[in-house]
Amino acid sequence: MAHRTILTDRQRAALFSLPADEAAHLRFYVLGEHDLGLIGRRRRPWNRLGFALQLCAFRYPGRLIQPGEAIPETMLAFIGAQLGFTAEELAGYGTRRETRYEHSATLQDLYGYRPFEGQARHGMLLWLAPAAETATDNAGLATGFVSELRSRRIIVPGPATVERACADALVQAERRVARRIVDRLSPDLRRRLDTLLDEVSTQGGRRFTWVRQFEPGGNSAEMNQLLDRLDVLRALDLPPGVLDGVPAHRVDRLRREGERRYADDLRALGETRRLAILVACVAGWRTLLADAAIETHDRILGRLYRQAERRRDEALAGGRGDLSATLKGLATAGGALVTARQAGGDLEAAVETATTWTVFERLVQAATRLTERIEVEPIDFLPEGYARLRRYAPRFLASFTFHASPAAAPLLAAIGLLKGMNAKSAKDVPAEAPRGFVRRKWQARVFQGGGTDRRYWELALLFELRNALRAGDLWTEESRRYRSIETALLPARAVPACTRLNVPLEAEAWLDIRRTHLARRLDEVGQAARRGALAGAEIRDGKLRLERLEGAAPEGVDALVVDLYRRVPRLRVTDLLLEVDDRVGFSAAFADLRTGSPPRDRLALLSVILADGVNLGLRKMAEACKAHSFWELLRVADWHVREETYERALAMLIEAQRALPFARLWGLGETSSSDGQHFPAGGTGEAMNVVNARHGTAPGASFYTHLTDQYGPHHVALIPATAHEAPYVLDGLLLAPSGRGIREHYTDTGGFTDHLFAISAILGFRFAPRIRDLADRRLYAFTPAATCPELAPMIAGRIDERLIRAHWPDILRLAASMAAGAVVPSHILRKLAAYPRQNGLALALREVGRVERTLFILDWLTDRDLQRRAQIGLNKGEAHHALKRALFFNRLGELRDRTREDQACRAAGLNLLATAITYWNTRHLGTAAAMLDAEGRRPPAETLAHVSPLAWEHITLTGEYRWNQPDRPASDP
What we know:
By secondary structure, the protein is α/β, with parallel strands linked by helices. The chain has 40 helices and 16 strands.
């Protein structure tokens, strides 16, 4: 038996079972002439067949056929056909056992296979040691181990031996990593780390527990609390290279383990592991706290500016009555003057007739005052919040060491000056203070009467600091989100090795291709416009006019949907989850945080997933299911349920649904769409829950979901309600395992930017957003003067080739880094979009995007099928939103979790539950369609393609959540 279980039954079967599918037979079991010659030396037919079977088993899965083991009939037939056996002879072979285990020694001599012992075993254990350190999951390590055995022609031992070797290697890897970290710590630092577990914070509780409880805030008090924690961690003074050479996923795993343990639990661990966990926590929390502090500064300034806008609006509203009276009075006096002048009369008498000169002078004075009030800007009200900023700003600036690009050098100098002024309690800004960072709209307020207004100067600096951090013109190495873009990108020498790049490595080659292609498409679309042959559009008087795209559902679809779902079984959601897990085994993806082992209590895990999916919460789920206590569910949630385990389970479900025959009616899984879905929050205290006026006045967050053409939601991200959606598009295409086969992607108007057009084209994606205001969008050309007359009014300008040439290597580095996973696409795209006027890379990427956007618009105007595909893809996304809204019904459909991690798990649980329903519906719709086929009235595939697997009326979602089956291991088929 293995020291600990690291594989499920399903995973063991995948590694060790004899294959029964034709694809594996064609890959591994085709016998060559040499093989047939050696097999032919056996005298009896049974010996020849037994020899061939053992040879094929040595090749794959790489092991001996065990005595009494059943051979798959398809395997027997495939090999028997090559040896000339009849079906009757093969059937007889199944009863004979003596030929199964006779030829292993001969095969080892003839083909060089070796048993897993002696030098072979020693060599494989040497290979296994470093592989265990870098392995991200247990099944992957076991798969790699077995593959290496096959490549070395070492006979794969039994499952228990493989599992034991991998488990031992994982344990030893944990110990080596922990020892590597702790050996870099001084005795004094080890003692100070342990004091985190013993000291009591001023807020109560152990300092270790207090320091890990943080989220981005929205006011000065919360900012100071974050800085308090950051000061505690900095005071420990970890050596800079303490985590060098340790795989990032292992550091992350140690940190997550520390976040789930109490101080007393850590005290009970051995010294080496305890200190390694503390080091990973301190290092990780310092980075996360730096990000949280900078984000809190961003939120405070955002809230302050919104308050200033409201004050401006109130001031304007308060003067509305005075404005109306003043305008009426001036209109009366002005009308009298105009009339008198036209008639050649006395102007003074005209004013006296209409009103008096005294009243007229008062009207002029009132108009002057009202003009000043109307011209007021929100920044005129910002000084009202200056005192609140001073409660944290000096400490915030002193807490970070910032670095700047040349464009932000004046800002960096001003920050240094302000730090010095704060340290000396200076009140006045020196005459030599940097001015280059002050934008035009601030200048009249900052520089007054030949001097500098301290409040406005500091406000301008703090707002510009926020902008520069967003754009990447300013950075700090202590942060993860706000570090230098340059350090995050791959080196230039790694770019040629990136296979995802879909463009030439030389800028001139790309420009030649795009210049020719764009000129040709402009000419073709111009000719089509001249003939009136555009797809649902026309250009009249230089103005593009678009027709509404109508739906194309065939007649009788609604009746067919009703008929099919009438044949689908009715069941409870708990039974659905059990059935889907029995077939797919997605619960095995929820590996234990420390050991990587699959969950032992499958029903508890499914209860946690269901609690996330229906927004019930663990305490209420424990009351509803009555099979597990709250503490049992909490333990499973803490150690098994994470964003990455949800992602792995989702990938398994997506692949299983993609393999169902009925799913192929909707597409090949090569196109997808993405859109955000807003969910309100229970209050403003929940993480990331900011207000977006488009969704009302209540705070909330958005779940941004990617959906394949087969209705598989292969990625979901939790994003702030106010965030622009476009930067998150590439996350689902590049980071999600199930999104890497996508070739064409659709979004709505809020999901595109020129930067996104550029990166998508460079990485080989066809990006096809449905742009609401397409008629108002302008095109770009390399030679605008040569554009045909029909399209000339739509050309906004010339493509800047010089800028593209200058930054082409950096553009390729950026795209390659995204494709390799070195950077999160949304992080980089948000930086590039934040402040492009000072960022050459952002400007060059925008020029590339203008080329690709122009080509896309030209294609859109001539391709009705493209328009229809985009509409269908986005409609599928809307239907998926409806399903998730129906599932997320508890707690009034509001987010009540206070941490970003819990909210992300809530989004992932909802997505997984919706995917399980999609898989179950797809499978049973296929069965229902087969019933229609048996009745002789199967509808055509074109009609079936309009049947959605997103219905839920036949699923009982409320009431008690009973699990009617006894618990079984998560891997049971």
